[in-house]
Amino acid sequence: DGGITQSPKYLFRKEGQNVTLSCEQNLNHDAMYWYRQDPGQGLRLIYYSQIVNDFQKGDIAEGYSVSREKKESFPLTVTSAQKNPTAFYLCATHQGSNTGELFFGEGSRLTVL
Amino acid sequence: GENVEQHPSTLSVQEGDSAVIKCTYSDSASNYFPWYKQELGKGPQLIIDIRSNVGEKKDQRIAVTLNKTAKHFSLHITETQPEDSAVYFCAASKQGLTGGGNKLTFGTGTQLKVEL
Asked: Are B30 and B14 in contact (CB under 8 A)?
């Protein structure tokens, strides 16, 4: 099946620990995105990548890091510098053509204990 | 940067009634306005979109209208059904423009509840 796979679906971590969220896609889409979702705040862009080996900061990049070594993969690391990391994280892809549609994964819920 | 405001934050309607969700945007260069539906525990899915060269678009029970002068756009759902219950997000972006990068700026979401 074509799609976007995010893992893990649920993750708990202690304060001070880094954690990496996985996002894999087999849609052959060029662009990939990470959004953070908090209640009442909609979706906010963390990082995005339009091509392999290149990525840009979004609106709330502080405390996060990414890499794009392969077209299929765009992992997000939530570092200990992120002051309020508990949230629902969504990965998305974009075909890169005239269509504007973003395709989303099912999300990863991170809880910091 | 772009700022998108969305109202109301919650909306409750009776089955069969219509629902309207409104959004305003700040950047007059934005030219693409999608609407996403998010069911509980899942990622958002595109339900309809409109580009700035069109004033209205309809797809069965769903329609979107755009007023470029006033910089606002709305989602209209007619004959609502229980399965329409979800969170709806509007968004805006500058597609195909330098620096746009297809980045979507989302509204804060509307929790729609369709009651039997």
From this structure: no
**Using one digit for the tens of pLDDT, what is the confidence trace for B35-70?**
999 999 899 999 999 998 889 999 999 999 999 999
Lookup: tokens for A102? 């973003």
Q: Work out how many CB contacts closer than 8 A connect A with B.
A: 61
Strands B10-14 and B110-115: parallel
Give which of B106, B110, B111 to mutate to test A binding, by max A Cβ within 10 Å: B106
Strands (E), chain B: 4-7, 10-14, 19-25, 32-38, 45-51, 56-59, 62-67, 72-77, 86-92, 105-106, 110-115
Query: In sequence order, which residues have a C-beta less than 8 Å from that of residue B110 and are 6 or more positions away?
Result: B6, B7, B8, B9, B10, B11, B21, B87, B88, B89
User: Is the confidence at residue B97, as pLDDT, over 80?
Assistant: no
Asked whether the beta carbons of residue B41 and residue A106 sit closer than 8 angstroms, the reply is: yes
- Positions in chain A whose pLDDT score sits under 70: 1-2, 96-99
Contact criterion met (CB < 8 Å) for B46 and A94: no
Count of residues in chain B:
116
CB contact under 8 A, A101 and B34: yes
Residues of B in contact with A94 (CB under 8 A): 102
| B91 Cα to chain A: minimum distance (Å) | 10
Whether residue B34 lies within 8 A of chain A, CB to CB, comes out as yes
Contact flag A100-B34 (C-beta cutoff 8 Å): yes
